[in-house]
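Hi there,

I know you've been waiting on this one. I reran it after we fixed the sequence typo, so this is the corrected version. Both the input and the resulting structure follow.
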Amino acid sequence: MPPQSSSQVGHIIGLFPELLGIGGVQEAGRLTATAMNEIAHRRGWSADFLSLNDSGEQSLEVGQKSVAFRGFARAKLSFVLSAMARARRFANAQPLIVLAAHPNLAVPASWMRRVAPRLKIAVMSHGIEVWQPLPLARRRALLRADIALAPSTDTARRLTGAQGVSGEKVHVLPWPLHPSFLRLAESPAALPLPPGFPQGRVILTVGRWASSERYKGTDDLIRALARLRERIAGLHLVAVGGGDDLPRLRQIAADLDVADRVQFLENLSREQIAACYAHADVFALPSTGEGFGLVFLEAMAFAKPVVGVEAGGTIDVVEDGANGLLVPPHNLEELSQALERLFLDDSLRARLGQNGAGIVRQRYRFEVFEAALDEMLLNCCSESRTA
């Protein structure tokens, strides 16, 4: 973008680990970049968006909105130098804000302040990455930020407890539902159901099945299915997503003699994933490591009751008895009972699903997120910096 001639023209710089990949961090980044771009446009500011792991000049689409950004193909030095060059170029902008969309990016954000002393820094956390103390340099950079954003009360608590961030700096900003999911939920019959989706009654789970993220609890869902298959006729588990843990999960299903009842669906389009939500009966993600859980919002958009565990950010999204059921972590008996209860009680399943559909449309719309982010960034600019 061209240099700003007026010191009263604001500028926003967004630093992201990745914007085009698969996963909750990437989806949250796309939504955040879009909201920042809209905030800048509305206020007459300029904006730059940099992504460490993407490649070249790119753009992303959220709803009807397009956001241009530059990727650096994992070249950390080029990424940092470009960020600092932008900070120097807009050092006189009022306000000048950098949002680091991951705690690891707090370090280059703090370096940017060396060339632009009036720079305000917001750092975004997601969940499990702040559960244990960060390496010293990263934690110091995080502590120097003006505000720290967390998607849930649990992540906010971890920022203060594990990282030592002042409670006054920590703000809870729940992620929104991607606007396209609300549109897809309005016409579920038109959605293309992917090959392999079973007939019968379906428990759906969606995630990335990586060996480093076994806390997602898909293995517990397979075990729960094995317990329930004789009590609930035609019951299936559909696990949408890929990852290097799939061979282990398939082996668990085979060992429990439910391989024919567990369908693993990979490489689906957004429309096909939406169709899975539309045709499922219950959504479950018994994860003990969620910082928030965007997939719960996706299921709620389709009026599906959700099942989660009393851990992490799940407790902010799943309200026991309101839009779903919560069970203790790693408790196979209670997980099985909760699923059975939902399948045997049609009125409960419908009530929780409808409540969830109302909650997601009231609290988790993109416009609500954008307005809250706008207010937090402006408050950040109005407060004096605390080193």
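Quick highlight: The chain has two domains: 11-176+366-382, 179-363.

Best,
R. S.
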